[in-house]
Amino acid sequence: MTYSITRYLARSAALAICLAPALVFAQQQSGAAAPAQPNAEASGADPSAVVIVTGVTKTTTKKNATFSINTLGGEEIQRLAPMSTADLLANFPGIYSEGSSAGEASNNITVRGLPVTGGYRFAPQLIDGLPAYEEPEAPFMNNDVFIRDDLMTDSVEVVKGGPGGILYSNGLGATVNHVTRTGGDHLAGGYKIEYADYGFIRQDAFVSGPLSPNLTGAVGGFYRRSNGIRDTGYTADRGGQVRGNLVYTSDDHMTTARADALLINDRTAFYQNLPISVPRFNASGTPANPTVIKQDTIQPLGIDFAHGTTASPYNRTFNMMGEYGSRTIDQADGIHPDFRMLTLSGSHELANGWKLSSGLRYTTGSNGFNAVFTGNDTATASNFLNARYQNDVISPAHGAALGCNLNNAKLIGYFNVPASNPCAAFANISRDDFIRKYAKATGVVGHYLNDGSPVPGTATLNFAVPFIANVDATSTSLDLKAQKSFQLQGTHDLTMGIYKSRYSYAPNFQAGLLVTDVAARSRPVELTAVDAQGQQVGPSLTSGSAILPGWFGFVSQIHGDGNAAYLLDHWETMGNKLKIDAGVRWQDLKADVVRRDRNTTVDLTPAGTVVGSTQDTAADNEISFPGAPSTLNKTYHGLGWSLGGNYSFSKALAVYALASNSFRLPSLQDLNDLAVAGATVVNGKQVEVSAVEHIRQYEMGLRYLTRGFGASVAVFYNNFSPRSAVNVYKDIQSASCATQGGVTQINSCPDVAQLYKRGVQNVGTEVELSWRPAALAGLELKGNVVLQNPKVTGANYTITQEDKDAQGVITGYHYVPISEDGRRPRRLPKVMVNLMPSYDLLSLTGVPVSLYAQYQYYGSRFSEATDNNVTLYPAYHIINAGAQYQISERLSAHLHVANLTNQLSFTEGDPLFSDLLSPDGTRNRGVARPLFGRTVRFSLSYMF
């Protein structure tokens, strides 16, 4: 392990030093310290009195909300011990977070059956009511890279639909608000140190309290390091954040002003799919007869599901090439957010019921994305190397010979070129004759890069695909509100707001292709072509194990400028029993995009190297440089509305109903992909592509909340209307297609553009229950259940598929028509269950120990949805358990075991094909992302 414990101690000390002055000053101002007060939900207080601040313009309680709202308090978050934002959001009904299986950051979540597009497209993350970054779906910069909940987090609130789409940008599915702790009337603070059995150590701290009669402050943060929840063999996670705030309140409480600052500099490993094998099947799945994967039949291919990973000390670093020359990539950099966030907000109450409030946030910094994806080519070394000989030696050299490209390094390196009239000799030569007459190379061999030893034929090899990106980003959000209270058939609180946002986004992305073995400590492999005597001929196929050290990618510059106006009326009438929220929002986005795809191939063979010699490498012959720019300059706009009501029959019982039509303007992913560039040609005609997504949502529910029993039941219907999509496929029947050796060269065929839409309709119910039986003090039974039935509407399009012979050589192509209409979207379960029983032993035994458990269940899910490889991955469950021991009034200990039963299942996976066999040929292979195996965490907390 290369991490220095000295540096860790130094950075931990720096965190303490940052907090110490605030602590001392707060003690001087406040006198005696008072213990921190637990929130209502955690302490067992009346849940009907839980106050919410998200989706409302007037502070209200959870029971009285006119929309779907779910909350978790700070103490409950600490007990759940989530390892990431996605892990935390898995506790909210309606959100599927895919088990946080990518690591501490850059996970995917879905909301109420909305399409899985990656990241947080339909679930923007707010910090205290303003977006951490204006656009929640940005390639290589998921919204969760900004969010690290710690002891400074007071609560997390989730609003689904309704006023979330009125008050906030992009609130199409769920708006998640992370509420920060502020200073109170008394000194409060805490320190927590946490250990885990995978080389994890983390320290959290905060201090808050009064600084003067009118000024309070809070400051805190965390720092941690970890070897990685999967065994990378090096320090995989390291870094942390510091954040704080100052709040001024005037003597008459009519004016408040607040300043917040946050600095985050963190690195986390990104874990990807692992190779798997399943029992042999003869035909790939179809919609009527999908390939059903059973949990107990899945076997690993070389890497342990529980704690294994393709990353290792041997492949931690590798070289990439591009317009910059050569650079060394370090996988330990992982996901690396380095951002500063400054927020100013305030409010002022005027006479006659008027109130003005504002919030301004500026975020700037960069995010590094260093991830190595797993290829789906796992095979024995003998088969893998033979495929390289066929596809990377013979095929390109044969193509060069047919085209009389006599300067091709593979042709002159691996084959004998006739001295006289070679073009005539090669004209229309068959593949077999080309090999028989001219081949110097008879095969490909592999040697481990670290020690040069030969790769045995029984070893297992695969491709690894590094995605390396760096993003420079800034975001400014300004929210101004004017609120007026007046009487008209009850009390109205009318809010009129304007919202302004600007952001910039500059990603530089490049991929590569590496060769590695598949083992617990994966090692990179160098490939060379050899003759019948085993001697190298011609250039090496790889350079430092990279067969393509500079592959596809892009370089972009994107600027967004948005404006919004909204109106929301909160009306309470009938003796405050009936509450109605009615609102409308208009928003636009002016986008300016310049994108340069890495589509220009450049030969970077060094000067002085003899092309085709054994001192040469073929890896540097086709390096992708950024090409000509593609641009987009357009303005988009959307209009949405929401109407909801809540009627309280009693203090405990209320019903609510909601109808809303929300919109989603093009995301950074859409803009960067130029998917919303405007008019496009479909079947020879220009068609204007719709760029704005909409969701029509209807919901009604019932809430019954008392100290001893709580129930919330919601029934919802969503109709998601996407932007238009353009499917582009090759016209393989066109006369303009070139052929070589009788095989169509598909890249020479013209494109066909096909317009289609993939909508989703979903009907579902969410049930939340809690029970604290009076007959058994200390027992709490709590949980939620989600039942949904999402279905795709539309999505009819065409793809082309390769024809291959027994040796994997491409022999042609054919069309495959696809229809997803009426099918369940990919990666969405129909059933989700989250049960959380706990038992405080104090009243029964006098011992201040609380035991708890958590059972999470997710139903089966489809892989990518096509007609010819429909795969259904199995349902899975996770059991977590732990104990909390109150050592003293202020000191407590916490033991948490995640995945107690070591459930080894998969959150998602690629579709499985019948012609992709495991290395021994007896099973089929694929790739899927497994759950993390069992882990144990222990923490000590001191709160005052």
From TrEMBL:
Residues 309-900 form the TonB-dependent receptor-like beta-barrel domain. Residues 62-171 form the TonB-dependent receptor plug domain. Gene3D superfamilies: TonB-dependent receptor, beta-barrel domain (2.40.170.20), TonB-dependent receptor, plug domain (2.170.130.10). It is found in: Cell outer membrane. One of its GO terms (cellular component) is cell outer membrane. It is a multi-pass membrane protein. It holds the Pfam family TonB_dep_Rec_b-barrel. Residues 1-26 form the signal peptide. Belongs to the TonB-dependent receptor family. This is TonB-dependent receptor. It comes from Rugamonas apoptosis.
